[in-house]
From TrEMBL:
Protein species of origin: Ostreococcus mediterraneus
Record's protein name: PROP1-like PPR domain-containing protein
Name of a matching Pfam family: PPR_long
Region of interest (Disordered), residue spans: 1-57
InterPro entries per UniProt: PPR_rpt (IPR002885), PROP1-like_PPR_dom (IPR033443), TPR-like_helical_dom_sf (IPR011990)
Keyword Repeat: yes
Amino acid sequence: RRTRQTTTHDTAPMSHACAAARASTTTPTRANARLSQRHRASRAATRGARASASAARRAHFIVARSSSSNAPPPPPSATPEDIDAGDFLSALESFHEDEVQRFEVALKAEDPGVFKGTMDEGDGGGATTGASRVDKLRAERREKRTAVRRAQGDARRASIKANGGGAKSEKLVFLYEEGVDVASEDTVTKCNDAVRLCTSMEEVLMLVKEMRNCGVEPVESTYVAVMLVCRNVGAPERAVQVYDALADAGVSVSSRTFYLAIELALKAGMVRDALRVKDDMQYKMVPIGSRLYVTLLRAVADNDIGKRKGPQERLVRTCRLFEEMLADGVAPPPAAYHILILAAYRAKQYDLAVRTFEEFVDTGVTPSRQTYETVIDAMSKSGLVPQALEVFVSMKKAGLAPRKQSYNALLAACVNAPQPRVEAAFEIFNELRESGDVEPDKNTFALLIDAASKAGRPELAFDAFTQMRESGLEVELSTLNRLIHATGLNAKEDETAVQAGLELYNAMGKLGVQPDVITYGSLISTCAKSRDGKTAIRLFNEMESNGIEPNTIVFNVLINALGRADCGDKAMEYFRMMQERSMSNRDLIPNRETYTTIFDAVLGPGGAESAVAKHALESGDGESFVHSSKVSMLREIYANGVESGVYEDLSSSLSLRDPEAGACTINMNQLSRTEAVVATFVFLQRLSELKVEDLPSALFIYAGKASRKGGAQRRLLAIETVLRAAAIKFQTGDVGAANIVAIKGKHATRWVERNAGTF
């Protein structure tokens, strides 16, 4: 088996679609080696247990025989049942085993140089070799063992009759007839037929026990009969126990029994046990067909096994079993590819699903409709519009008329594309209408509106809405929310955006549709883009009067709208309201986006640069801006963020020193531009609180690595703006790709001496 597996593994084609899971997949050779080792250990343990039991029984028999002369004679009423026939049988088998072993040793000890003749067995007057004598002894042992079992059953049946009893079950009356041979195939067949007629597991156990008492040894068909009863009475999990008993008894198992055990194990939801039976089939060299592999693949893809759960783990196990099928030389049928594609789709491994489909098509087999639709849906999740259209065309060429879900999947691909393909979406929609076989639904129009919204084409979104109304479909709240969102896309340039959104909002009442928190959030967001703070406050108040609780997103967009409208004080009022309500509703705890938004609102529409310039014009002193009430408010908000765990306390960063140079580094790499401004204000306050002798030899502010997005450059400019306003000398430079602001120790000392106690 090991040699065959190695050869198959070396020559079998490797599935590229399962390459991701291949690293964690055990090769069939190693798996079968471990399996073989496990079976060898199990057989060795079984042989050891049997040898120990046989020796104990032989000793018991010898002691009983040696003491029989001194023992009192049995009473006249004693029956053969008083003697343990099992002990007698074991002792007899042990004696014959010793005799066979003596012949085998003698056979091996014979001189190989002695001429034994050239006659085959049966020629020349019945001459036999040593090996044939061993076979003869073994045959005699089997005959005697059968005779003992038959005598055992006869003795027990005679005992039952002597005591005035009879068959416990009417189905086994024939076992008590005169001259019945309990070891015959006909008797065993009758017993199996009786077992199949049982209607409960209790009845099965009673019959099997009575069969054993009568000396009938169960064979494979007996175990199969019990397993069929387990299936009929709705207890498939008991069939797995019956299979284990069959394996422990050492009965030869056919492929039909293996298949039945796997079927019932899967019916009971015992996938691990089904795979264990499959391993036994491989060990016994029983061929596994593609249909059984498909059944196991489906079970592994649909069910969790063990502690590792979830679609990702199910995908890994499915890939392993798929690779095992390839290694066994079994050509995967279309259903196997479909299961693997579906498992990858559920695990959101859309690229793997696409690669598996490509391998499937390369085999020359036409996929099923379900496979086509699953792959198109997987491509739509990844925004692969050209590939999805190609598969769509292939499905049509295969004679499969596209259904509504296929068209909707193509529209979803246009929405999820890196650059939304709104023109392609409307072309697909027009083809759907022209086909005449498929009618668009609400989801179809919703996807069209989303494609237009993501492309920044609100006019196309309203065109889709108009066609939806013409189709006679009911207008839902989600559709109107999409349209309101579309009206606010160009609100910065379009002054009528707020009015258009309010018209849709007012139309909801006429259509009998009640707005929700998403409706108000979209409307207030449009007000933020248009810098309309008054309308934003009015909508917020209407929302609360209608009994709709605002969430974190609504508070964030409201604060943003007030900040853009240069209403920083009003923004602070709603920020405080949000903090107060978060005491009873933890869903309203300000997040990092909330803090960034309130920072922008307090600084004003122009940001830090505009705030510094405005303060300098009003006071004539730009340096005093870092001591202003506005900056003090920003530092207070930042302190709240530190308490909430949103930001790092800069005091701890200032206390850290380089062990060699004594320098200190402040990391602002993870902050946004506005957050870097406020963090620099806080840094200056913490610096002014240090004593001169505690100042570091140098201060470095790390703004991040230069990138195409320019985040580090924006942070660097924000930090420079604040330091210039504070009139502290600094230098900027690049260390590799990192942007650094450096403040020498002497410049920090002068600034601290000048600003100590002024914050």
